[in-house]
Amino acid sequence: MKAAELAKLKEITTYTVQLSPPQYPQLRKDLEEHGFVLKKTPYAFFSALKDSEKINVTLYKSGKLVLQGKGTAEFIQYYLEPVLLRQINYGYEDIINDLESHDARIGVDESGKGDYFGPLIIAGVYITPKVEKTLRKLGVKDSKNISDKKIRVLREKIIELCPFSVVVIGPERYNDLYDRIGNLNRLLAWGHARVIENLLTKVDCDKVIIDKFGNNKYILDSLMKRGKKIPIVQKVRAEVDCAVAAASVLARGEFLRRLAKLSKELEIKLPKGANDKVETTAKELISQQGIDSLKKAAKMHFKTTRKIFMDL
C-alpha cells in the first residue's frame, strides 16, 4: 500500500466487523501465537491486548469483533484482511473507494446473468499501469454504458493487449449446474474462482478486484491453491476500476458472440434481456422445435419460463 493510502488508513483508531463462528478459534490461536495477552471481558469470548501493537481486540459472543487503538490500521492491513477475512471489508468502504489503484491487477466480471437466452460468461483481465492508460484512451468503461457495436471492437483490443481468461457456461451446462447447486451466487462464485485460478497460471499478481455479487464466503470457498494465497477485493460498483471494466467488456463481448452463434444454430434470433420479446421468441422456439429446445437456449430457473409454460 502506498504511503498516502496508508496515511488515510492510519486515521482509523476503532473498527468493528462481524465474524463467523469458524473464524473464532483461528483468531484466538493467531493472537496467542503473536504474543497477545487474553483476558475475560463481560459479554465477550475474550479480549486480547498487546502493548507493543497499541491495540485492544475484543471478540463478543454475538460474533462482533471490535478493534481499538492506534494500531488498528496496521492490524486491519497486515492481519485481519489478508489472513482472517481475506477480503476488503466494507466497514470502511468510504476510505477504500477513495484509494484509486494503479497497480498491476486482475479484474473479474460477468455477463449474461440477467439474460434469459444465452450463456453465463465470467471473464478476467490482467492489466498493468501502462496498459491501463491505453485501455482508457480506447474508451474502456463499464460495458453497460457502451453500445454492442463498440463492445465487439473493444473485445478484440482487450484480447490483443491483456492476458485474460474466460469461462463460458452454456445454457445446458448452466441448467445442470443450477439444478445441482440451487443458488446463482454460488454458481457465479465457482465461475469467478475458475477465472482467477486460470489467470494466476499466466501472470504473477497479488491483487484481484471483482464486482461484489453476494456473500463473500462463496467465492473464498470456491478458490483453490493459487487463489487462496492472495486477497480478493470485492467492491460494490467495481466497474469503475479499469481492470474490472475491461473484464466486463470482454465478458459482454463474448456473451454477444455466443448468443449470435446460438441463434444461428437454432435458426432463430435470440434477443437479449428478459422481456416480452424474449417470451414471444421462446414460444416460437418451442412451437418450431419442441420444449427440449428451450433447455438448449435458456436459463430455465427464470420466472420467464413459468410465464411461457402457463401460456402454452
UniProtKB/TrEMBL annotation:
SUPFAM superfamilies: Ribonuclease H-like
Residues engaged in binding a divalent metal cation: 109-110, 211
Subcellular location field: Cytoplasm
EC number(s) stated in the UniProt entry for this protein: 3.1.26.4
Alphabetical GO biological process terms: DNA replication, removal of RNA primer; mismatch repair
Reaction(s) this enzyme catalyzes, per UniProt: Endonucleolytic cleavage to 5'-phosphomonoester
Name listed for the protein in its UniProt record: Ribonuclease HIII
Lineage: Bacteria, Pseudomonadati, Candidatus Auribacterota, Candidatus Auribacteria, Candidatus Auribacterales
Gene: rnhC
